[in-house]
Amino acid sequence: MRVAVLSDTHSPRHWKRCPPAVAARLEGVDLILHAGDVCRAETLDELAAFAPVRAVLGNNDGPDIAAWGAPEWLEFELAGLSVAMIHDSGPATGRGARLRRLFPAADLVVFGHSHIPWDETVDGQRAFNPGSPTDRRRQPHGTMGELVIEDGRVVTAGIVPVT
Question: What is the DSSP letter of 99?
Answer without folding.
Answer: H
